[in-house]
Amino acid sequence: MDTANQDINLNSPNKGLGTNDLSDVPAEGAVGNAARTLPPGMTEEEAEELRTELTKVEEEIHTLRQVLAAKEKHATELKRKLGLSPLTEFKQNLTKGWQDVQTSNAYVKTAERLSEWNDSLYLSAAATFEDIAQSEAYKKTQETLSVAGQKTTAAFSTMGTAISRKLGDMRNSPTFKSFEDKVGNLKSKVVGGRANGEEVQSPEQTNNPAQDNAPF
Length: 216
What we know:
By secondary structure, the protein is an all-alpha fold. Helix content is 74%, strand content 0%. The chain contains seven helices and no strands. It has helices at 28-35, 44-82, 86-102, 105-134, 136-172, 174-196, 203-207.
């Protein structure tokens, strides 16, 4: 076998075949075209047109990605010049997101529903208290408390009257009058003695006048 006619590519599927044998092997493109099948009802011209359009769309996608990357880089540079840090941008996005939530239909409907529930709960509580106020048990309890208050007021009034009467009786009693007379006499002596320049003697000195002259 002539080595010049052998395939020198070790990875070739025609390895070991001579140049004369290569003429019997079909080309790769011919094999691919023969193996490619078209969907039912589609002609080769329609398939080729779709392939061309797909190629254009993929090229446009690639171009748009490059443009988007350039725009993002330019936006980052502008933010850096304006002093907008990632944290500031995050706060702004968070604030804007919350504003969007508050103006969303779901949030508005939820707020309205909660307001309706709150009003309904308030009306229900008010109706419950009204029913309690109109109930027989509440009326009886209120009447009982009113009667008890009246009885307590009357009891205090009676006790005050009794105390005043008792004090009046004490003032009119002989003992109280005797005590009052003694206090009045003592007051008269004190005031009269001071007016005359005399030394006011205590009751003990008045009862024992000889004690000052007693011998040693």
